[in-house]
Automatic annotation (TrEMBL):
Gene3D superfamilies, alphabetized: 3.40.630.30
Transmembrane segments: none
The organism's place on the tree of life at top rank: Bacteria
Species this protein is from: Marinomonas ostreistagni
Name by which UniProt lists this protein: N-acetyltransferase
UniProt xrefs under PANTHER family: ACYL-COA
Length: 386
């Protein structure tokens, strides 16, 4: 087995990429996703994200797997927050950036971070062993260029625990809220599992949409027009503008995805009469829905809950999808039936002193996260088991 670094997906090539990843439907493993990021100013100069894809091959050059890594000059767009670590480095006269992240850019979604035809789901012993074999490759590449650290973000729990057995790697946990399909046949069936008070509250939220003269429409990628994507993009940027920021992704990125990944895109559009007023963009595969981007040009009561949560849940039930990852943070998701789950990351810190200090921080943080997980679990709207 051998490995080689590449600075763009084009250098690897579509054919080799597909040979490596096999038949996985995971949207964030697809060549088209990274190609759109690279070609439309979402990676590279001016973004702080510089691709370095690691292609793993057999000795005869047959592609085995791809690890998406990126050199970072800041910590934006990662959602595993290490700003305080960078501040500590600066206070002691050290450079934290550049660093390396092993991650899906701008996407706080748990999933495989090694895309391979050997095991698309990422649970075999062979797959875990491949991760463990590549970790020192990242470490060596970092040390050759005197980078401070590398960070494996939103990986599966069993992988984080396996790597975390070594004192060399730090295992960090955080909490998100995900929805799970327990065989629901319809939204009414789903709400029937809520307690009476919570069920009335959820129905009232959905009723408010019609009472305000709003209607929502779910459209798949092949049905979308450039004008609808353009409207979504205005909504997406409006969400950031309210915080005095600019969205990371370009309109051309989304327009290209509709051409290259249409079968994995869901857009929820909200209308007031014939006028679109809000939109929510999701990706999906044969198992999960991934809610990523949302915005509106006019504020309406409960529109966010409907466009970003209830419409996604309804889509999952209709399509038989088992899981809905709506993005990071947000305790307001709990009342809509999203359960607290742990998310996991692994961190290699080159400096032994900082590694010990950050390791202690991760352990203390984990205690608070576990308490938070337990507390929020008690707030779920479902009927209590007898």
């Amino acid at each position: 087995m051998k490995a080689q670094w590449f600075a763009s997906v084009a250098d690897i090539g579509y054919e080799r990429w597909q040979q490596a990843i096999g038949e996985t439907s995971y949207p964030f493993a697809q060549y088209a996703f990274y190609q759109a990021l690279e070609e439309h100013a979402c990676l590279g100069d001016g973004t702080g994200w510089y691709p370095e894809y690691l292609l793993v091959m057999e000795d005869d050059d047959a592609p085995l797997a791809i690890a998406p890594t990126f050199l970072k000059t800041h910590s934006h767009g990662e959602f595993v927050f290490d700003w305080s670590w960078a501040d500590a480095y600066q206070r002691y006269g050290y450079q934290y950036y550049p660093k390396r992240v092993w991650a899906v850019p701008y996407s706080p979604v748990t999933g495989p971070r090694l895309f391979t035809h050997l095991d698309p789901t990422g649970h075999s012993e062979e797959y875990v062993a491949l991760y463990a074999a590549l970790a020192p490759v990242l470490t060596q590449a970092n040390q050759e260029r005197e980078f401070s650290s590398w960070h494996l973000l939103f990986c599966h729990e069993h992988l984080a625990e396996h790597l975390g057995q070594s004192d060399e790697y730090l295992h960090r946990i955080s909490c998100q809220f995900h929805w799970f399909n327990k065989g629901y046949q319809s939204m009414e069936d789903y709400f029937s599992h809520f307690s009476s008070r919570k069920r009335k509250s959820a129905r009232k939220e959905r009723d408010k949409i019609a009472q305000q003269g709003l209607r929502l429409e779910r459209k798949l990628g092949p049905e979308l027009t450039p004008e609808e994507v353009q409207f979504f993009y205005i909504c997406y940027q409006s969400t950031y503008a309210k915080r005095g920021q600019t969205g990371y992704l370009s309109e051309a990125f989304f327009q290209q995805l509709v051409k290259s990944m249409a079968e994995q895109i869901l857009l929820v559009l909200a209308y007031k009469g014939d006028q679109p007023v809000g939109a929510s963009w999701c990706f999906f595969d044969d198992h999960s829905l991934y809610g990523r981007y949302w915005g509106c040009i006019e504020e309406f009561d409960c529109l966010h809950f409907e466009a970003c949560y209830y419409q996604g849940i309804e889509f999952c039930i209709e399509k038989g999808l088992q899981h809905f990852d709506p993005g990071t943070q947000g305790e307001h998701k709990i009342a809509r039936g999203f359960e607290p789950v742990f998310s996991h990351s692994v961190h290699y810190i080159d400096n032994p002193g900082f590694r010990d200090a950050i390791g202690n921080f991760c352990k203390e943080e984990a205690e608070a996260v576990r308490e938070y997980h337990q507390d929020t679990h008690e707030l779920l709207p479902f009927k209590k088991s007898v």
